[in-house]
Design a protein that fits this description.
eight-stranded mixed sheet, single chain, alpha/beta, Dihydrofolate Reductase, subunit A
Length: 192
């Protein structure tokens, strides 16, 4: 079974949307990872490692629409360009897929996600995709979290976790580190 990893830049109050800015979210905090936080390269080592270790990339429709316009041509994301990609969407059609980003499959349901996990290959990594991540967590499909927690409280934005009433979910710490700029790396396995 493949490991499904959700990776995120997250504020202390759980906001995961618009970390790099952009028009996708209508609130004052867009671009929060690049404001008032010193850039420390070692804090982002996890992001490079994710590309090296991932076997596939998974995105929700909104993140796919945003990332597919820029990531295929960015040298920083060269490994993602060549690996298989899954887009979880009930509305995206085949003719809505870009043609310069390798093999892309559309998954129509969480059952399709569960089936993709049953296949062979390396971990499947989910970037962005706040709504998808909440649904995957609620369905018990996420196996690991890769979090870079920023020392900021935003008060507005999409949250990493839903407010669904569900059973307690234990996590096991695999890695943790705090960097000089206050960012914390937290890597957790979901304990089942």
């Amino acid at each position: 079974m493949r490991t499904l990893i959700y990776t995120a830049f997250v504020s202390l109050d759980g906001v995961v949307d618009s970390p790099g800015g952009g028009p996708t979210e209508p609130h004052r905090s867009g671009g929060w990872t690049f404001t008032d936080i010193e850039f420390v390269p070692e804090a982002y080592e996890l992001k490079g490692r994710e590309q090296q270790e991932a076997g596939a990339l998974m995105l929700g429709r909104v993140s796919y629409d945003a990332f597919s316009k820029v990531w295929p041509e960015m040298a920083e994301f060269a490994e993602y360009k060549v690996m298989p990609k899954y887009v979880v969407s009930t509305t995206l059609s085949e003719d809505g897929l870009v043609d310069n980003w390798g093999d892309i499959s559309i998954l129509r349901s969480l059952d399709d996600v569960a089936a993709a996990k049953e296949g062979d290959g390396g971990p499947i990594i989910v970037h962005g995709s706040a709504e998808l991540a909440r649904n995957l967590a609620d369905a018990g499909l996420i196996d690991r979290y890769h979090l870079l927690v920023f020392p900021v409280i935003l008060g507005a934005g999409k949250r990493m976790f839903s407010e669904t009433d569900k059973a307690k979910q234990p996590l096991k710490v695999l890695e943790s580190e705090t960097y000089s700029n206050g960012i914390q790396k937290l890597v957790y396995d979901v304990v089942r």
